[in-house]
Amino acid sequence: MTGTAPAMTADASRSKTFAFLVAFVASVGGFLFGYDLAIVCGANLYLKEVFHLSQAGFGFATGSAALGCILGPFLGAWMCDAFGRNRTMMFACALLGIGSLFTAIPNDIVTFNVFRIIGGIGVGLCSVASPMYISETSPPRLRGGFGTMYQLAIVIGSVTAPFVSYLIVKFTPASVAWRWMFASEILPVVVFIVLLWFLPQSPRWLASKGRMDEALATLTRIGGTDFAKNELEQIQTALKEETSRFSELFAPGTRYALIIGLLLAFFNNWTGWSVMAGYIPMLFEAAGLQDRALAFLQFAVTYGFMGLVTLVACWTVDRAGRRPLWLIASALMVLVTFLAGAVFHFHLQGWPVLVVIILCTIPHGLALGPLPWLMMSEIFPTRLRGRAVSLNTAFLWVTIYAGAQLFPIMTDYSQQKLGSVAGAFWLFSAICVLSFLFGWKMLPETKGRVLEEIAASWRKK
Question: Which residue of 10, 384, 447, 460 has the smallest Cβ count within 10 Å?
């Protein structure tokens, strides 16, 4: 039995279309992820004034959703295994709807933070279930492009949020603008819930529950008859060899995969963009841009540019491979974060600030953003995938929260010591050097490989 997938049969075009639509719908979870976390970037310009927040309180309000996102994966580990990946996404949508509604109406910061955390749990559930579902329902030769769609959806959500914020600021009173920003998320949540009703269960989840006929039917729709028979045979073989004990995550081989997943999660955020992204409008204001509506618009432009780069990643990830893209992106990010630090250190204003921030989106959109989400769902055995991805994703959200909480403190400290915020960017440059070394020495190549083959490779180690 080989580890490569067989060529698709005569119904390949129809199967590919179905697989694409399944991945497309599941990636809407990424849209909600991006929208939810980007909408606070516009609102936080008002929150500090409305609730009279300290720097620490401001950092907590900005990052409070990430606390819920940390909790979400632990709940997701159980829900994904018990009820399936798409049912977990539906429950996540319900929490996001509750969070968006009740963060729009509070008059105190405690209530606001509580419901941001509840909404964050929904984001955390989506961040586990959506990439895992896409990975498990995509043919191996298309999995990279389909998996990268999740990051593309995050970017589209992150672009949409500042555009919506821009319109709200232009056409609503300043006293309620931030409330409408949070309430606006209800519409995409409802759309996602409706679309999820039409998704099949993950064939690997169905197989793990002994529902082989349903698994075979779904695999046939995804890749054709020959593909389905070969794939189901490999899934059944892998399930017989695997256990579902949590302790297996720390066994030799699988433990190495877990370390790789944790490092992917760390570098996804601390190579620069994800930490600074929540404060981009404030960075524009610090650089002399006083028009808030225009700050939102420029924020949207930066994410729009990242969207174009992520489209390139969707096309290249199954051609160039994961490792080459990671190495190129890490090296580029070393240069652009160092340059961004220089721009802020010498207090340049206007277009240089916009240019360096746009430059920071290129390596993130090319690899540092999408590849961790893709590869964390590729590298683990089927029975352990839910728990392993949940653990990795929870750690990823810890790094996101830490970045949101620490960035204002980092920039204040840098301002005191260097007279500018440049120190924070130069710290990112140093971390990007470590990211390059990680890609060079540790990161596996998963391009074109069947999930069961990737899982088996850890046992060989």
Answer: 460
